[in-house]
Amino acid sequence: MMAYDKPLPALDGDNAPHWAGARARELRVQRCDDCSLLRFPAARYCSSCLSEKSQWVTMSGRGEVWSHCTFHRVYFKGFEQDMPYMVVLVKLDEGPMLYSNVVRVRPEDVQIGMRVKALFDDVTDQVTLVKFEPE
Fold first, then answer.
1. Alpha carbon separation from 50 to 34, 40, 41 (Å, rounded)
2. Domain spans of the chain, in order of start
3. Which of 129, 119, 110 is closest to 64 using CA atoms?
4. For 1-135, where are the E strands, in sequence order?
């Protein structure tokens, strides 16, 4: 595997189950045990009912582009070869939203409302990133 020189997530924090799910090719988010609210990123308390009880559940990995932004400036040297690159906010069919990238499509073809599905990119031996591609 080639050296990966872009920022990587912390795998041992509150979102550790999300990253373990990505390694297992599953898109996982928290679900409140009391009111069933789905949330990401992880939080100690449910923003709806303030319960501390939750579990991690697997999503379908399907959703739509809710918003997007194309970066034309290098903030991290590792992205230099990718310029310009796009960051999207994906609203999963189940409701939660998460930031990621859309791949296998030209940036100019990405539109709000575009249907996408998750794919899993093994960027290091320990880290798998969740990205999206057109459905």
1. 9, 15, 15
2. 16-134
3. 110
4. 27-32, 38-39, 54-59, 62-71, 85-92, 97-100, 115-122, 128-134
Strands (E), 22-114: 27-32, 38-39, 54-59, 62-71, 85-92, 97-100
pLDDT bucket at 1, cuts 50 / 70 / 90 = low
CA distances from 23 to 14, 78, 80 (A): 16, 22, 26
pTM: 0.92
pLDDT tens per residue, range 19-64: 999 999 999 999 999 999 999 999 999 999 999 999 999 999 999 9
